[in-house]
Design brief:
The chain has helices at 2-15, 19-28, 42-49, 51-76, 85-97, 110-120, 122-139, 142-158, 163-179, 181-188. It is mainly α and 198 residues long. It has one domain. Helix 8 packs antiparallel against helix 9. The longest helix has 26 residues, at 51-76. The N and C termini lie far apart (46 Å).
Length: 198
Amino acid sequence: MVEYIIFIIIAYLLGSIPSALIVGKVGFNIDVREHGSKNLGATNAFRVLGTKAGIIVTLADILKGTIATIIPLIASFYMDIDVSRLIIGIFAVLGHTYPLFAKFKGGKAVATSGGIILGVNPLLFLAILLTFLLSLKLTKYVSLSSMITGVVATIISIFLDDILLFLMIFALTLFVIYRHKENIKRIKNKTEPKITWL
């Protein structure tokens, strides 16, 4: 139980690192919370700061989830611990979405959720990355592509004989859809911005 608490705190604090805010202020003297969608996610970083900065933010947000799942694995080599890396990873997503270091207003959970999957199943991560890029190419909507990717990841996980992985991906997909409820309205109204860089 103590191990869970320690890793949960570490994961949440990792997730709370506001990548978009840091890159915007350090690299451009811009607070992304005052521009675009005012969201601290990678998509707004692309729109406000440009492609290179957006890529950096995306990678940083992915790594938050990945590192959160790898730390317990590394610790298990040195200590007798038995914790679920998937459960620990979820707290990185919560940190990203409700960051301690940015007044609890963060991103929409997509990249960091992908980072968890990268940490526990790299082949599945590759599959969902390809799904996201294909969806993005076809629809030009980052939000819609994110939700489609979550649904596809859930379907794939059904066949992986890992009930906890399936439940985690299913829960994260529902959470991602919930976080995109305003985007869904804009898509229906045809006012959701489309990307122009792919």
